[in-house]
Amino acid sequence: MLFRSLYVPGGVGVQMTPRSLVWVDRKGHEKPINAPLHDYLTPRLSPDGTRLVLQLLDPNNLDLWIWDLKREQLRRLTFSPGADGLPLWSPDGRRIIFNSDRAQPGVRNLYGQAADGTGTVDRLTTNANPQFPSSITPDGTFVVGFQGSSRAAQVVLFPLASPAGRAGPGLSPLANSSQAGSSGQTLFDGAWPEFSPDGRYLAYQSDESGRIEVYVRPFPQVNSGLWQISMAGGTRPAWARSGRELFYLDESNTLTAVPVQTSGSTFSAGTPAKVFDTKYATPFPPRNYDVSPDGQRFLMVKDHPAPAQTGTPVSMILVQSWTEELKRLVPVR
Fold this sequence. Notes:
disordered N terminus; 4-stranded antiparallel β-sheet; disordered C terminus
């Protein structure tokens, strides 16, 4: 058998995609945010709308950074050699919940850290299954996310309160090792769940019909109702903070809005309508946009052309029969 190996020589960095952050109104008009170009991912607005937490990919690592919209300052939040991602704000804006593989490469568990960078980083779960957080209950007692791939996944609820149900200031670490080692409570099949602002409903995506669509279920009785929201494909749902609209991306990457009613005894949804075509970055499965507190603007990530390459071109080396070459270089004694 002929063995081949393909590798990139050491010292060569990963090519990053320069991206900017922009506001886009309901008519599709852009307003740039004065943040430097970086490889931004998954921006999330703070509860008061003054800050962003986002993933920033550099040639060496994936960390969380915070952009202050008023001061126009970018500050690094995490410094672990592991990959940190999928950040969420606690309801009071004091803590960031995220996933990381800092304890074991490839195994992503949940962690929490003060948004101002003070104090320690708390590990919230310990499990061999990679865990992907996507939303927090309004009272800060649960994180909902999923385990598995985004197409074949199970929505899971992770408790963040003490056994007595007290959530403490912001979000507290799980109270004991038995809770921290659990896989959470499996709710149903799906991915990227999002709590409604009143905490009574969960929007999520699922391919149970053969195509990925957006659905809504009641919470916590998740099996007592089911409503399909998108009709021609839909992913990455997000709620307006008023609770009166639900947004998602359709199959053509169009931002779509659906009027919804969550205040009564039953849920109801109107007809999906186009907001604007998203000529914006959707680099990987999580939601890469967010909604302003008033629901009139959308925070988007915009790709920019990569700068001309000025250094040595990246080369890849193909080695055939590398096991024989290894024997030559490291002879057996």
